[in-house]
Amino acid sequence: MLRYQRGDKDAFAVLVRRYQVRVYNFVLRHLRSEASAEEIAQEVFLRIVQRASAFKHEARFSTWLYTIARNLCVDHLRKANLRRHPSLDQPVGSDADAPSLGEQVADPAPTVERRAASSQVAFSILQAVDELSEDQREVFLLREIAHLPFKEIAELTNTSENTVKSRMRYALEHLQLKLSEFEEYARALR
After folding, report:
1. In angstroms, rounded to a whole number, what is the distance separating the alpha carbons of residues 6 and 41?
2. What is the number of other CB atoms lying within 10 angstroms of the CB of residue 108?
3. Which pLDDT tens digit goes with each residue over 25-62?
4. Virtual CA dihedral for 158, 160, 161, 167, nearest 10 degrees?
């Protein structure tokens, strides 16, 4: 980032190559929409270009980068809440377990048992992550998707490192409880 601030345009390309997949994955997990994730990930790097002079080297670049990504995600979610258009992934009707519009339109052809089980596990993981409190989900995503250390997460969320670790512990306990039904299935596959 220091090289880019000094005018080395190739340094920006290095930053993009190094962080674009990580940022995209972080944003995707936060927003749960590929199209939105692509848009916001591009916006993150646009903001870096626009605000390169504002970067201070007291903090790590990755902390600054994920702060921008996090803020853009929060803004995007606020705007999305104002729109209130139904999502294809949202269950149809009042039953939370009801199939989504996307599932109702999808090809109903049966698949191999393992693929179905894998799909169910993935869905259950996403659902369990969605059920986390906002604070716990944010810490979980920053730690597991963005691979940030607890200290950086604490700086980013403006909380103490112990609070961040506590939120992560509660998030993991919740996920373990919600996903315990798949332990037996995983043992059977071994």
Report:
1. 24
2. 7
3. 999 998 888 989 999 999 999 999 999 888 888 878 99
4. -90
